[in-house]
Amino acid sequence: MAYLMGIDVGTTGTKTLLINDTGEVVASVTSEYPMHTPRPLWAEQDPEDWWQAAVYSIRQVLQQSGIDAAEIAGIGLTGQMHGMVMLDADGKVLRPCIMWNDQRTAAQCDWIMNTIGHERFLDLTLNRALPGFTAPKIIWTRENEPAVYARAAKVLLPKDYLRYRLTGVYATEVSDASGTVLLDVQHRRWSDEVLSELGIPREWMPDCFESIEVTGEITAEVAELTGLKKGTPVVGGAGDQAASAVGTGVVEPGLVSVTMGTSGVVFAYTETPSRDVEGRLHTFCHAVPNKWHVMGVTLSAGGSFRWFRDTLGLEEKNVAMLSHVDPYVILTSEAQRAPAGSEGLLFLPYLTGERTPYADPDARGAFVGLTLRHDKRHMVRSVLEGVAYSLRDCIELFRDMAIPIQQVRAVGGGARSDVWRQIMADVFGTELVTINVTDSTAYGAALLAGVGSNVYASVPEACAASIRITDRIEPIAANETVYNEYYPVYQTLYHALEPAFSDISATDQGYA
Questions:
Q1: What is the torsional sign of CA 295, 296, 300, 305?
Q2: Residue 261: which residues within 8 A CB-CB, separation 6 or more?
């Protein structure tokens, strides 16, 4: 029997997952680490934390599974997208990674779009330059940390830094590279035009592969450190969303996934590189060779619920600790006691700015409609509903682009909640299904390793052999009616509050 390993460099921890060639999960271990916020709306991590977490989780998985490491046919990598890891000529990290949810680069995004031209940039990359993406972070470093920039020799994405430590190879693949906005997404290669016009050296970019291609092998030093076998192939893998799509089986037309992690992502497979004319959605290369996808992102999905738990749910956390249950279970049971629509209480989940459809780093979270009638059960339900409304914003853009939506598959931590899944089905007005895979991102990376190591003939074959539907939730008609009335109200709130968001951000910067 062959085994496959997927390693996911996540926002809160690195997960190593091992499956066998029938798709059964054999072992899974996550090692956590912190995120640092040195200023409001900034987010950074130490890449060394990723590496130490990867070494620990790999060793633990091998120990738990009890398998011979020589039986691992291949390793796939995935992880948080867009982060900038800047290395010197000796491969040493020059500064902490600026992460996907960092919002410091609005001015650099404007400069990029103005330098190349809005329409031309969309033609070259199929995407807008947004604060979360990698290219603006490189420009920010050039402008604000010239001593660091002067020593730079390579720029890697988070999972690709792990690849470098595992194999000694500087490489990436097309799905993750799409999120740098330095890739010619249509032709699946670095854009020499964009790099040249932005003044970013071409030699800083790692070699770019398809997701199923072998990019390197485990070195002898790493084999000694982790217990892996020297020479084990490491495939390209994918950015976390493309890997999750593989792990969810969204590898053919008509299927859409909603991933409920720290961020919320709505993802649809496309045969061709289609894009929203206003650039509100992202058009990236899929992990399926020569296919693409579109996606919209809510930056604080599960992150909004976690914020509520940690700031307003302390009582529930204490009760959960004493009763040995998850505090989210207690909070969602409270939400279930409030009616659909939360009796007019609406929540904007813009706690770290927003990506789709507004691309506004200054956007802020808000409760709107509070009255003496409202209590905690309304507040927690409005958080769940607000995230669902924000994800519906993405789905409505898919519909505007005539992208078929035949089935929506829900994955991620938030999708484990029956209450939240029902709210999403009601808000979207679609059937929502779950699948047998719970760790879809690391699982997708493992399946890609299986294709690259010839365990499977293709990505669709790997998915068909491993993934099945486990549950279906239909919209409740009465709730759907309520949400269809409140959703247009929700849509007006960003536009009504946007001037205040801008003023708050400007004032906050003045006191920074």
A1: negative
A2: 10, 11, 301, 302, 412, 413, 414
Helices (H), 313-435: 314-323, 327-336, 376-400, 418-428
pLDDT for 221-278, tens place per residue?
A: 999 999 999 999 999 999 999 999 999 999 999 999 998 888 899 999 999 998 888 8
Active site residue 240: yes
Which residue in 49, 176, 184, 240 is the catalytic one?
240
Tell me how far apart the alpha carbons of residues 436 and 438 are, in angstroms, rounded to a whole number: 6
Helix (H, G, I), strand (E, B) or coil at 2: coil
The full DSSP string for 229-245 is PTT-EEE--EEHHHHHH
Sign of the CA dihedral 298, 302, 303, 304? positive
How many whole angstroms separate alpha carbon 101 and alpha carbon 103? Answer: 6
418 to 132, 138, 339, 411, 442: CA distances (angstroms): 31, 41, 15, 12, 23
pLDDT in tens, 50-91: 999 999 999 999 999 999 999 999 999 999 999 999 999 999
The answer to whether the beta carbons of residues 299 and 133 sit under 8 Å apart is no
Those residues whose C-beta lies under 8 Å from the C-beta of residue 313, and which sit 6 or more positions away, are 327, 331, 380
Q: Are 354 and 364 in contact (CB under 8 A)?
A: no
Helix (H) / strand (E) element for 163: namely helix 158-167
